Each structure stands twice: as structure tokens, then as C-alpha cells.
């Protein structure tokens, strides 16, 4: 039996074993009477490796007598014939509470793997935009996953949900508030996630924070978009601990170049402080504070006429208490308080005086969320049990005034031309829920994961108390040592959070919680240097919420004031598709991946099936990475079908109206193509570590089209409509250096 087969048998029996395939030679032959952890430990000892038991997860790590693979003849012979595809099954983070998933397909990235990818403006959350099933035009760091809205993504860090962790949040969330240097790992679900995750329907990003910068105590970084300082240290208390203090700030003018503006001051900053202490060998406590701040001013092409201002401050205080060793149980208790303050102003001054098109919007939003969550897990060799609950107090305040004159286009498409709003709302109340799930091995090859969660809200202004039940089921069947088949099905529900009331578009009520019933079938085959994945999915939404879009070009300076701003209220939504991907290690230094996705996402409106704007039918991603020692070079090529857009007829007669539902997304934009590259180099000296990097997005500066705007011109008998192409981001370069002392 090989070492990899032994580990596989132990995992079937319920052991959660974490290792890197470049550290552990899975092809090494071992002799045994029965598959036990003692036998595994003896086999690993010959390689200088050992087992470390950590919060219910068994990690294979280097022992004190570890010899590098290149110097160990017995290991080298197992690996030299064919390059192995490195897979860090679960990155080792002290705060990781849940172990690796068996029945739910997950993409996991360590901090080094994220850094090796070409990233737009060196933004770590952009690593998700090249995943199969994701729709993007390269503008937003918050992607559309498998046809869903961008707000259907749950983002949590160290077990705590984050509210809008993005800079430029009022401008398509173009840049995340997560510093790549602070990340330890990122796990991503693009569907079929387990019952512990709730209130979102399409995807989950689960982030873990890095506790130290290796053995360095101070990082100082300078880049095109940020200046960063981080201080790390140890705490001599109880069983020991550590702390992290960091600050990042900069200017995002180049990132926001997709918005048509003459000048801008898009300044931002992040502040973070965290402390971790091991109280006993089986318990620890952590607490911290983060702040994200935007101070953004854009002035439009017509100087003095168009102005957009956005000031957003998010303060987040959190604490975590972990206990292991309660028999076979362990528990995590977290508490957090998030305060979000937003001020958004839009002005189009001159046009409103001409009574043609323009207006103003003044919007103030304040949100407080105080949350407590408790998770329990019992695992080992056999069935794993999970259960948990959470409760949140929510308080919001909205103050909004606007006067809008939309112009001729509004008349032609049958939407209100003049709107005047004065809205003051104070939603307040509780939300929360609970879940229970099991992971049960049935025989040697089958694992099932039934789960159920219940959620509630009582802050709705006009409906009172709401509850939702969401059953879920995951199944994994190991066909052979190389092949696994998975089935995930369930109900996913999403209420509008207290900060998501669409007041800027004139709404003063929450929509009912949305429902998405989903099924996904996946196949995974792994053999040495090759990994193949295939997955097909189907999603059916009921009670989809209404939303507001700009028909022609979504990337404008004053979206709520534009003449093409319309409300879209689907009766139902359907999304289906499939993803196929292959990953290959060509050598120890060169790896690559290729994926293809097909997607069809449609709204059902007034009896018609209408494709969603971001339903990019065909998508291909190609990536190559070269790593040798402290140097890495990577490239990524993304191609996909053009997004859908709305085209008006060339002439509309006086008195005629073209209903929105008859023209919505009736045309397809040209294909999208982007070549992105990155390079990194590290020098380690006794007193300082120096890292330099370069990320270039859209290297060829291709003019990818965002939408087609229309200018109306008065002619005899009506209006002539003239199309004008609008483009998204051109080439964006991020250069930087980090000094670690």
C-alpha cells in the first residue's frame, strides 16, 4: 500500500488530515497490518515528518530531523519520474475552526498561492474572478457567481461576516478592503455550500488572517496604489500569543478610470489591530479592531456640472474564544460590532436649470450590527457533527433627498421623467438563526452530509417577523483512488440585510427573502501531476428581489441620475451551466490551468425569458505560473462572450413608447479579452527581507466594451438615436516593494 492510499483510508474513517503533496510523497510504499494513525506516524518518521494534532485536524508537518525532498533519495525516486501537482488541501492557520470539506467542492488558496496569481491592482479578492462560473468585466472585486447578483456572495473573516469589505463601494466595489499581506488563506465556494453558511445564495469567501510575517517583526511596503506598515510581535502571557498592528492607505484614481471623470481624489485607508493569546494548551482568545475609510470625490467631463462624492467609514470590533479538548467536542464563540456610515452625493447642476436632464441626490446611511455566534463541532474517526447559532441586533438610519429630471430618453422608454424624494427611515430589529449538520461515512466509499438551517428577521418595516428553513444535502462517492463524484442540493435563502435597503433608488421597504433551489453534480479526477474537474448546476429562484440598473452603460459617474435608470422586477430567475477545468504540473517549477464555462442565466419578466446582463455564455481562462526559489512569474488570459446590453431602435416616432421589457438586454456586446501578468522576486538577508512585485492587468490595453450609450437627436417626426460605445478599464499597472525587518 502507498502512503497516499493509507491517508485515504484514514480519511474515509473520519480522520481530517492536512498536508501538502510536495511535502508528503504519496507514492511511497508502506507495510502495515491495519490502517491506523500509529502506522502513519511510523511511516512519516522515516521521512523526517510528524503528526501535529490541532483543533480536531491532523496536520503532517516537518519534524526536527526533516530532510528536504531533493536530498532524500527514497523520496526523490518517488517524485522524479513525474512532476506532482501541489495541492495545499487546507492551509495551516491557528484560527481555522472547520476542517476540509468532503462533500462540498471548495477552492482553497494559501497566501503564497494568491500572491503568485496576476492580480488587478494587487487585490487578493480578484483571485476569484478567474474561477469557473464567475462573470466579470474586470471592474468589480465582487463578482457575479453562476448567474447571481453580486450581493449574493457571503464574505467572512475568522468566522465573522463582513459588511461591504470594499473600497469604492459606491462605484462597483472596485477594490477590496483586504490587504494581501494580512491574509493566511482563502476558501471559496461557488455553490453547494454547507448549512453553517446562511443568508446568501451563490457563494462564500472564507478568509483567515495571518498572525505573523514569518519571523519578521516589521513590514513597510510601497506600491502604486498603497503605502503599508505592519508591526508583528509576541505576547508573553499564559501559553504565549502574538499581535498585529497594520495600516494601509493610498489613491485609487487609476483603479477608477472606468468611470468617466475629469479629475478625482479617491483616497482610502485601512487600519487593523489584532491580539491572540493561548490561555491553555486547549483554549485561546483573540480580539481586534479594523477600520476601512473612503474619502472620494469625482468631477465629471463637464467640469463644474457633474460631481460625485462618497465618504464611507466602517468600524469593526470583534472577539473570539476557542476551546478544544471538551471530550471530542470543540467550540468557538465570537462577538462583533460593526458600525457603517455612508454619505453619498451626486450633482448634475447645469442641466437641471435647462429642465432637460440632471438633478441632485443627497444620501446619508448609518448602520449598526452587533452579533454573537457560537459553533460546535465533534469529529474524529467516524461521524462528524456540527451545530451552531447566531443572533444579531441591527439598527439602520436612512436620510435621503433627491430631485431628478431624467430627460427625453425616459419618455421614450416609458419611465418616470421627474422624481422628487424625501425619505427618512429607521429600521431596527433582530436577526439570526441556527444550523445542524452531520458528515457520515457509509462504508468505505460513500460520505453523506445532511444539514438544516433556520433563519429569522424582525426588522422588516411592513411585515414583522420572518423565518426561513433551508434543508441541504451533500454526497461524495469515491469511485477509485483517483476519482470522486459529488452531489449537492439544497435550498438557499437570502433576506435583504438592514444596510441593503435600496433607498437611493426611491424604495422605502424591504423585499421578501429570496429563495434559490440548487442542484450541482461534480466529478474530480486526480492523478499525479493532473487534476480534472467538471461540474454541472441548475438554480431556480423564487421571490427574486427587484433591482435597479442603467440600461446602456452601468459604469457611469451618477448612476441614480441617469436617464436610462430603470427598475427590473423578475417573477422568477433561472440559471444553469457547467464548468470544466484542468490543472497540470509540467515540472516542479511550471504549473498551468485551463477552464471552460457555459452559463445561461435568465430573468422571467412579464412572461418573457430575458438574459441577465452578466450572463456571459462562453468563458475560457488560461493560466501559467513559473516558480523557482524566490522568483515567480505568472500570466493569465481571460476570454468570454460579450455581456448583454440594451439597444434602442435608430428612430422613435413622436408619441411612441418602447417598453423596457421589450428591449431589455436584446443585444450582445463584442467579446471580452484580457491578458494579465505578474512577477515577484524575494531577497532574504540576515536583517531584512526585500520583495518586489509587478502586476499588469490588460497588458495589451485592449478596448473592452462596457456598454453602448445613446444620444437622442430631434428630427422630423420624432427622435433619431445614435449609439456610442463605452469602454471599461485599459491597462492597469501595480508596482511595489515590501521591506520586512
TrEMBL record:
GO terms classed as biological process: siderophore transmembrane transport
Membrane topology, record value: Multi-pass membrane protein
Subcellular location(s) per record: Cell outer membrane
Occurrences of domain TonB-dependent receptor-like beta-barrel (ranges): 325-699
A Pfam family the protein falls into: Plug
GO molecular function list: siderophore uptake transmembrane transporter activity
InterPro entries: Beta-barrel_TonB, Beta-barrel_TonB_sf, Plug_dom, Plug_dom_sf, TonB-dep_rcpt-like
The keyword Membrane is annotated on this UniProt entry: yes
Positions of the TonB-dependent receptor plug domain: 101-202
Primary location: membrane
Origin: domain of life: Bacteria
GO cellular component, one term: cell outer membrane
Keywords: Cell outer membrane, Membrane, Receptor, Signal, TonB box, Transmembrane, Transmembrane beta strand, Transport
Family the entry assigns: Belongs to the TonB-dependent receptor family. Hemoglobin/haptoglobin binding protein subfamily.
PANTHER family documented for this protein: HEMOGLOBIN AND HEMOGLOBIN-HAPTOGLOBIN-BINDING PROTEIN 1-RELATED, TONB-DEPENDENT OUTER MEMBRANE RECEPTOR
Protein name, UniProt field: Outer membrane receptor protein, mostly Fe transport
